[in-house]
Design a protein that fits this description.
- This protein is of the alpha+beta class.
- The protein has two domains: 108 residues, Dimeric alpha+beta barrel (Alpha-Beta Plaits); 30 residues.
- The chain has four helices and six strands.
- The strands form two sheets. A four-stranded antiparallel sheet has the order 2-5-1-6, covered by helices on one side. A two-stranded antiparallel sheet has the order 3-4.
- The longest helix has 18 residues.
Length: 141
């Protein structure tokens, strides 16, 4: 099972403040531990929302709004992990070296097998799986 662990943004992150040297070192050790355990697929931090945009869809219209956005529900980084269960994902998330007030949310990634055949026919599911495998080969993920 693949899970994404999201890091919630806060005012510090949204101002572009860099993490401390100690936090960067602790995160490096945590990421190395996940790599050694064979569960880490990807890990990235995101720039503040002031450098981003949102696209809102309404029928045929696509409207673009440049950031910044309120930090209440923003994501500032993520890990993609592959584990055997939700409880294992929770255990990894509990080990993130954050201080008081930080929030990590975990969400299971949808797989083709999660969709019934009337929504995702077997030939489309096979094509999706083939595309994902090709992307993994191409990008080494």
């Amino acid at each position: 099972m693949r899970f994404m662990m999201f890091v919630r943004a806060n005012k510090n992150i949204e101002t572009g403040a860099l993490p401390t040297k100690e936090l960067v070192a602790a995160m490096g050790r945590f990421n190395a531990e996940m790599m050694k355990a064979g569960v880490l697929l990807a890990a990235e931090g995101l720039q503040p929302s002031s450098k981003g945009a949102r696209i809102t869809f309404s029928r045929a219209t696509r409207s673009v709004t440049d950031g910044p956005f309120p930090d209440k529900e923003l994501v500032s980084g993520f890990w993609m992990i592959q584990v055997k269960s939700k409880s294992e994902a929770v255990e990894w998330a509990r080990r993130v070296p954050f201080a008081d007030g930080e929030v990590v949310e975990i969400r299971q990634v949808s797989e083709a097998s999660d969709f019934p055949a009337e929504v995702l026919p077997p030939e489309d599911a096979a094509r999706e799986q083939s595309m994902r495998e090709e992307l993994r080969r191409k990008h080494g993920a």
